[in-house]
Design goal:
This protein has about 130 residues and is an alpha/beta fold. It is built from four helices and six strands, in the order ββαβαβαββα. It has helices at about 35-40, 55-70, 85-90, 115-125, and strands spanning about 20, 25-30, 45-50, 75-80, 100-105, 105-110. The model is unreliable at about 1-20 (pLDDT under 50).
């Protein structure tokens, strides 16, 4: 089952944990977003996406690889913009995929559209 076919828990880890996309990626909602980004002791990369978005599906495996490689150095999360509309509106996310890096709860960098793994790593490496 792929990320886009799963029903509700978005788990690719096979463990079926709510709120976990894979071992290294968390699923955020409007209710959990603020606490997650402010409580993190490391930078947070949030992928704003939607099921119908082709470029979002293209970037998903890249984000998975980044999450695995940066485990312990960066928290990686995904937020579905169709199911959670308040947070994208608050951060003026008007195009997806949008990747936003947060540090100490504040947005420090934003990337819109598909990016290669090398481009995302370059963004993150600036903030470590």
């Amino acid at each position: 089952m792929s990320l886009w076919e799963s029903e509700g828990d978005y788990s690719l880890s096979g463990k079926g944990e709510k709120g976990v996309v894979s071992e290294n990626i968390h699923t955020l909602t409007d209710a959990t977003f603020r606490e997650f980004v402010t409580a993190a002791q490391v930078p947070v990369l949030v992928d704003f996406w939607a099921e119908w978005c082709g470029p979002c599906k293209m970037i998903a495996p890249v984000v998975e690889e980044i999450a695995a490689e940066y485990a312990g150095k960066v928290q990686v999360a995904k937020l579905n913009v169709d199911e959670n509309q308040k947070t994208p509106a608050d951060y003026k996310v008007i195009s997806i995929p949008t990747l936003i890096v947060f540090k100490n709860g504040q947005e420090i960098e934003r990337s819109i559209g598909f990016k290669t793994k090398k481009e995302i790593k370059a963004i993150l490496d600036k903030h470590l």
